[in-house]
Amino acid sequence: KQEVTQIPAALSVPEGENLVLNCSFTDSAIYNLQWFRQDPGKGLTSLLLIQSSQREQTSGRLNASLDKSSGRSTLYIAASQPGDSATYLCAVSQAGGTSYGKLTFGQGTILTVHP
Amino acid sequence: KAGVTQTPRYLIKTRGQQVTLSCSPISGHRSVSWYQQTPGQGLQFLFEYFSETQRNKGNFPGRFSGRQFSNSRSEMNVSTLELGDSALYLCASSPGGARSPLHFGNGTRLTVT
Fold first, then answer.
1. DSSP secondary structure string, A14-79?
2. Does A101 touch chain B (CB under 8 A)?
3. Listed residue (B44, B70, B69) closest to B57, CA to CA
4. Phi and psi, residue B85, nearest 5°
5. Nearest CA in chain A to B48
6. What is the pLDDT along chain B (113 residues), one digit of tens a residue?
7. Which three-class secondary structure state does DSSP give residue A2?
8. Which residues are CB-contacts of A97 (< 8 A; sequence separation ≥ 6)?
9. Taking the CA of residue B33 as centre, how many other CA atoms within 13 Å lie in the half-sphere pointing to its CB?
10. Is residue B95 reached through a cis peptide bond, with omega within 30 degrees of 0 on the bond before it?
11. A6 Cβ under 8 Å from any chain B Cβ
12. Are A101 and B48 in contact (CB under 8 A)?
């Protein structure tokens, strides 16, 4: 059974810092890994999707890496801003079968960026 | 392009009642998945529909059911509500392939009293 763990559970940093969020998963047989952010009381916003054959993806100040063999992914946020404050979730899509809409989520990292 | 739309945004129901939640996917998306989010259990997969067929189902009791219509809109039904069903219910859509990201709606907040 796939299990996804995110470390740290919470992180508080001053504005401008570069930071790294960690995600690990137990079964390396995945189609892809996706990072999301969730603002309080809202749905999930997709940030980055990394296919199992890829090593990293970048979007603006965000960079996500994937090491499938070791079951790890990191989300790097450069020059953090107060608007980055949210819960960040990683999720994996398990390989095998055709249910691509089934993701296994971590518990999330609550990020607070203070001015 | 309009995003995933979920209605209603908030619901308050009494134990024993039933409830139906609605999800309209992004235009052209044929896959709709449902998730339950609670503080204790986090995000848990309920089921996925693709072209009106249930493709997968999570580990939830039979009180939770769903369906998808020919226009890809989906509904989720919970019968005989229990207090533990209070949660944020999220719907996600995608084109349906392994390489496609999921796009989530803002959810329906269900409170059971």
1. ETT--EEEEEEES---EEEEEEEEE-TTS-EEEEEEEETT-SEEEETTEEEEEETTTTEEEEEE-S
2. yes
3. B44
4. -80, -5
5. A101
6. 689 999 999 999 999 999 999 999 999 999 999 999 999 999 999 999 999 999 999 999 999 999 999 999 999 999 999 999 999 999 999 988 878 899 999 999 999 99
7. coil
8. B56
9. 28
10. no
11. no
12. yes
The tokens describing A49, both together, are: 């999707």
* Peptide bond connecting A14 to the previous residue in cis, omega within 30 degrees of 0: no
DSSP state of A9: S
Mutate to test the interface with B, among A54, A102, A109 (most CBs of B within 10 A): A102
For residue B98, give the chain A residue with the closest CA: A100
Alpha-carbon distance of B97 to B77, in angstroms, equals 26
Position of tokens 């959810």?
B107
- Smallest Cβ–Cβ distance between A43 and the set B55, B96, B105 belongs to B105
Picking from B7, B24, B34, B35 by the largest number of A CB atoms within 10 A of its own CB, the best residue to mutate is B35
Residue B15 Cα, gap to closest chain A Cα (Å): 23
- A105-115, pLDDT tens digit by residue? 999 999 999 99
Residue A30 to chain B, least CA–CA distance (Å): 10
Residue A44 forms contact with B (CB below 8 Å)? yes
Contact at 8 Å (CB) between A101 and B90? Answer: no
Inter-chain contacts counted by CB atoms under 8 A, chains A and B: 69
8 A C-beta contact, residue A108 and residue A47: no
